[in-house]
Model the fold of this input.
Amino acid sequence: MPFFSIYDRWDYTIPTRGGLSTEGWRYESQENVLEAWGQAHGCDTDSGLEDWSTPQDGGIRFFECRAFKGCKAPNGTVEDRKGIVAECLWDGYHGDWPADGVIAKVTFWWIQKHVLTEEEGGGVYVDPPASLWSSARSAANASTAANTTCTRHSALAQH
Done:
């Protein structure tokens, strides 16, 4: 089961470094969560997360991603691609949603690359329609407004 986390760097409501939030909740650090998933996938966690290029890197929000290398596929073979256990960060705060659709675009790209089989459309990236990321942004804003004590903003995909 691949693991992909997308997170805003300056979130103090659910802090990436873990510990006590501004609202009094205690969270595990993003680093510990990623390492546990990396170990579960047999990734090279000793080397740490490495820079990982995506089609959405850079921009005004300094969007960047990191991933473990050497993760094992379900059949036990070592994957030749990074991204099975990965995180992406951008300059933002809790509930902040970049208007350019970067979150929806990179999530769509990651699912096609690491979750879908070739028969399901995996391996070939197609930019999602603009309506997808505007709908996702609206849903995220509504969700954030309704529940500020939500769990980590980690996207989990099952294959």
In short: The chain has one domain: 3-145. The radius of gyration is 16 Å. DSSP finds three helices and seven strands in the chain.
